[in-house]
Amino acid sequence: MKYAFVISAGLGNQIEMIVPYLHIIKSYPHVDAVYCPEIKEYNPDTLKFWEIVAQYHGGTMRAMQHGFMPKWWKDYSGSFCCQGRQPWPGIPDLAHNLAPHRGNEVEHRNKIIPEGEAVKIMLEELPLNWNKYSPNKAEIFDAIICNGGTLNATWARKRYTRWNDVATLLKEKDLKVASVGLPHEFVQGTVDRTGIGPLDTMNLISRTRLFLANDSGLYHFASVIGIPTVVVFTATSSVKNHHPVFHRSAEVVEGWSHGGCPAPCQGAKDSWAFLPTWPNCRRFRCSAFEPLHIMNTRTVKNAIAK
Length: 306
Known about the structure:
The chain is an alpha/beta fold. It has helices at residues 11-15, 18-27, 48-56, 70-75, 105-110, 117-125, 130-133, 153-156, 163-172, 198-206, 217-224, 238-241, 255-258, 266-269, 274-277, 292-295, 298-305; strands at 2-8, 31-37, 60-63, 143-146, 177-179, 191-192, 211-214, 229-233, 250-254.
């Protein structure tokens, strides 16, 4: 039995492991995906993506959740393999290969496979044909919006506050618009498809011609399956969370540059420096810039023209 290790916290971090995973399943005839979440309370529904991918390639999905890692969240000095876990026999400890970093997350995760293999896989194996992985007859929307962000006050700051205005402008162009995500992420003026679960949400995204989101897990999913996407970065880092090949179907909108800020805040410049610097900002103009900056992107114009 061979194993592919998925070590992460949220859905987006999981999906960023797809390239090492694809490398392993090309090398071995049978693979189990082992999900090692850093936060033990994390919603197990996020396993759905890996269950589907593993089953498609003849493997199974296993969850490994024997502990969690508070030290890493406090000072970013721990390893990615959670402290206090009881290791499974035969599974290598990748902690030293995935140490905390400052830089692009996709490039960082790809370091666990041979140099040069990662770009080859991204060009040849991505985007995934999601209809092969998860055949579905989900309803079709012209555009789907995800205002991703947990109820935690810190992570909620990465939202864009004017998605409702974007939805209005899209509907004026005769586009049918829905919003997805958790129930509290519903965007006023859209068809409500929040709270429907990860698989149904992914299936909806796979059938739209335009996906709009702030920096969130579903943005990574839409990129992996090649959906034309506009991603809005407010106080989080595009250097950290956007890779030119991995996310090549996503067009970036930098909130700080349109919000009247003289320069990106420390959070938008540095991968992990946002937690101590966000509380110092009282304006958050990066999350409330004019929606026309989104409407004028090449990706939105192409979707409207279809």
